[in-house]
């Protein structure tokens, strides 16, 4: 039998528990599964996960069967809330306010059954999972609990993306911000413009390590997702109650697109036909030209994006747009005069405003990095506040919804320790405890303003993460701490029980091991994770790109 796991080892921490540990029940080959209408995705997920881990068939059975696992909807609960009860009748009941709540309850059930429940196949044939009697009642603090994954700097194959969706689900995260385009690569097939992937998805070489490194990987790097790949990713996410928010960067971070279609660039000041997909890090000076040609081109891009991604929000980037080319461009300066704008900052606001209106007309909402506040926004637009708290405060006070993701707290590419053996150390030192004490809602907001904080997300920029193992190392275990911040009703940062969280992480590391996650151990990098010395001195403070 597996070890009994108590509610004191759950991550994220639930709102309330009662009676766990006062008796046990065992799931076996005769345990049946009953699912109310509307809970089918969780029914299938349970069979695919617990069934595989323990060799349980979990056959359909009647609701009142002794020892059954029962999935129900309960309209007295909020949509993502759940109540899990393991009773002396030998059965398990999960009630959710909606299908999502039932699914999050199933994630808790999996944790309660111990680390073996996270394996893909039975380690010991005939293992029988044991569950303590009791009740868990839970609901999330925020509706937006996100992870942003940058696949433009280093491409992650589709199977790796699906794996990260599973890791998100295991931590009750529900928004996947998919950073699909940048200077270093274009990753989504757009059938109207085949050169975006034919040319824009590959670069000739890659800077190895951070921007100060003298080393290069002298081989092509690239890849992209076909539209069928995207449909599979979106459907896989939806089955796990995760919304995918695509990001198509405009007007900066666009050199890969300009390399594919030179007419998108500022052709009166630079020979864009000589540009290639950028092979280094930082901020490229090559930005989109503020022309009707560019607007029509990206409308064509977004038309296909909307077909692929059915969610409410579309992210347009809007950050770090260097304006030197616009200052030098007679065409850009004429556009400023024609539109009656004050300067180049106004030109960027006009560019973003165009797509704000375009998306709104099609029933979608624009979201962008906090630079899009400069020049004003339409009422329905939302802001990702990355340059600290200030952008989020300004947006909320102006009546805009906000997702808090300040680089100083939740940029997981930043190093986890000041030690010399940290692999490719960049950015601020942000430890597991630092992430655990992050507070998404700025204290200076009034209660009315604070209602505009949709939630929070952690961002994983992959300049220095060339493979899935490096992404794992940077993301975990800090993503577990972030998930608790996003889900649980925690006290003020200074009052949070980090020591208690560390104790619960002892059990959670066993779950991550079972999932094959190459996390950073509490004691520091494993020998194979270390890469000291060869990539230059650590960079203190934020890298020049997000």
In brief:
The protein has 546 residues and is α/β, with parallel strands linked by helices. Helices cover 31% and strands 17% of the residues. Strand 10 (144-150), helix 3 (158-170) and strand 11 (175-179) form a beta-alpha-beta unit.
Ordered list of secondary-structure elements with their pairings:
Blueprint: E1 16-18, E2 24-26, E3 32-35, H1 40-54, E4 59-60, E5 69-73, E6 82-86, E7 92-96, H2 99-112, E8 130-132, E9 134-138, E10 144-150, H3 158-170, E11 175-179, E12 181-182, E13 185-186, H4 195-198, E14 202-203, E15 206-207, E16 216-217, E17 221-222, H5 227-239, E18 243-250, H6 255-260, H7 292-308, E19 313-317, H8 324-328, H9 330-339, H10 344-360, E20 365-369, E21 382-385, H11 390-397, E22 401-404, H12 407-410, H13 432-436, H14 447-450, E23 453-460, H15 468-475, H16 478-487, H17 498-515
Parallel strand pairs: 3-4, 3-5, 5-7, 10-11, 10-23, 11-18, 18-19, 19-20, 20-21, 21-22, 22-23
Antiparallel strand pairs: 1-9, 2-8, 6-7, 6-9, 12-13, 14-17, 15-16
Structure report:
The structure is a single chain. With 546 residues, the protein is an alpha/beta fold. Helices cover 31% and strands 17% of the residues. It has 17 helices and 23 strands. The strands form 6 sheets. An 8-stranded parallel β-barrel has the order 10-11-18-19-20-21-22-23, surrounded by 6 helices. It has a 7-stranded mixed beta sheet with strand order 1-9-6-7-5-3-4, with helices on one face. A two-stranded antiparallel ribbon has the order 2-8. Helix 1 runs parallel beside helix 2 (99-112) and helix 3 (158-170) runs parallel beside helix 5.
């Amino acid at each position: 039998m597996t070890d009994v796991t108590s509610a004191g080892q759950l991550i994220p921490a639930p709102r309330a528990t009662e009676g766990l540990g006062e008796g046990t029940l065992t799931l076996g080959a005769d345990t049946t599964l009953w699912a109310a209408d509307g809970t089918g995705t969780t029914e299938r997920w349970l069979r695919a996960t617990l069934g595989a881990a323990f060799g349980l068939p979990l056959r359909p059975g009647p609701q009142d069967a002794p020892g059954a696992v029962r999935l129900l909807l309960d309209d007295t609960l909020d949509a993502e809330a759940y109540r899990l009860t393991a009773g002396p009748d030998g059965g398990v009941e999960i009630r959710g306010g909606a299908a999502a709540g039932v699914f999050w309850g199933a994630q808790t059930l999996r944790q309660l059954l111990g680390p073996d429940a996270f394996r893909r196949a039975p380690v010991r044939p005939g293992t029988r999972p044991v569950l303590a009697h009791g009740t868990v009642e839970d609901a999330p603090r925020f509706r937006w609990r996100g992870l942003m994954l940058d696949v433009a700097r280093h491409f992650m194959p589709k199977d790796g993306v699906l794996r990260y969706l599973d890791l998100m689900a295991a931590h009750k995260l529900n928004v996947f911000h998919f950073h699909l385009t940048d200077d270093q690569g274009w990753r989504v097939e757009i059938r109207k413009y085949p050169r975006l992937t034919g040319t824009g998805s590959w670069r000739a070489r890659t800077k190895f390590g951070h921007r100060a490194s003298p080393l290069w990987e002298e081989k092509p790097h690239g890849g992209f997702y076909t539209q069928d790949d995207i449909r599979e990713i979106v459907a896989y996410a939806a089955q796990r109650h995760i919304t995918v928010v695509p990001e198509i960067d405009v007007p900066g971070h666009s050199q890969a697109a300009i390399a594919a279609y030179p007419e998108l660039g500022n052709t009166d000041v630079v020979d864009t036909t000589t540009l290639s997909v950028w092979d280094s890090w930082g901020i490229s000076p090559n930005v989109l030209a503020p022309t009707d040609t560019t607007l029509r081109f990206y409308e064509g891009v977004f038309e296909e994006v909307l077909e692929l991604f059915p969610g409410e929000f579309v992210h347009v980037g809007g950050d770090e747009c260097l304006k030197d080319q616009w200052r030098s461009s007679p065409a850009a300066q004429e556009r400023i005069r024609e539109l009656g704008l004050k300067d180049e900052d106004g030109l960027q606001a006009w560019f973003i405003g165009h797509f704000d209106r375009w998306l709104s007309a099609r029933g979608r909402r624009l979201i962008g990095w906090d630079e899009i506040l400069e020049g004003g926004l339409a009422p329905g637009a939302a802001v990702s506040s990355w340059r600290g708290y200030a952008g989020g405060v300004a947006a909320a006070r102006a009546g805009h919804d906000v997702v808090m993701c300040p680089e100083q707290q939740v940029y997981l590419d930043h190093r986890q320790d000041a030690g010399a053996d940290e692999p490719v150390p960049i950015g601020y030192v942000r430890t597991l405890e630092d992430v655990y004490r992050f507070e998404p809602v700025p204290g200076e907001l009034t209660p009315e303003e604070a209602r505009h904080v949709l939630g929070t997300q952690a961002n994983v920029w992959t300049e220095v993460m060339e493979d899935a193992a490096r992404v794992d190392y940077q993301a975990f275990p800090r993503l577990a701490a972030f998930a608790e911040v996003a889900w649980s009703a925690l006290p003020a940062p200074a009052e949070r029980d980090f020591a208690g969280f560390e104790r619960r992480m002892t059990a959670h590391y066993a779950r991550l091991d079972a999932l094959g996650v190459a996390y950073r151990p509490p004691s520091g990098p494993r020998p194979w994770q270390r890469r000291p010395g060869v990539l230059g001195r650590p960079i203190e403070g934020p890298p020049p790109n997000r």
